[in-house]
Amino acid sequence: EVQLVESGGGLVQPGGSLRLSCEASGFTFRSYAMSWVRQAPGKGLEWVGAINSYGSSYCADSVKGRFTASRDNAKNIAYLQMSSLKSEDTAVYYCKQRTIWGQGTQVTVSS
Question: Which of 13, 29, 52, 96 has the fewest C-beta atoms under 10 angstroms from its C-beta?
Fold first, then answer.
């Protein structure tokens, strides 16, 4: 069974950092690009970033310079390192592999 499980969300103050993890199972992790998508309260889905199978990462303009996607193929885990967090980063964050989505992890940025 293909499965993605996110973790690492929580409450953080503005300017703080968090690292989200996405543990993958049921497929050859190293062969697939992994993406991160978020949904803020009352808003639609927003693509945040991705890392391809070669290790090249990309991020949306809204988070560029603050967020970085990475991966550890030995552990089958994708990461989203988030720094300089802002209140507008508050959202449920999902990792995905093509049409497979994780359950999401809540990130709340508030003082």
Answer: 13
Dist CA 15 CA 54 (whole Å) = 31
Of the candidates 28, 26, 23, the one whose C-alpha atom is nearest the C-alpha of residue 53 is 28
Q: pLDDT 10s digit of each residue in the chain, 111 long?
A: 999 999 999 999 999 999 999 999 999 999 999 999 999 999 999 999 999 999 999 999 999 999 999 999 999 999 999 999 999 999 999 999 999 999 999 999 999
Cα(85)–Cα(108) distance, rounded to whole angstroms? 9
Length of the chain in terms of residues written: 111
**Angle at the Cα of 105 (from 65 to 73), degrees rounded to 5?**
65
- Local structure of 72: helix, strand or coil: strand
On whether the CB atoms of residues 21 and 7 are closer than 8 A, the answer is yes
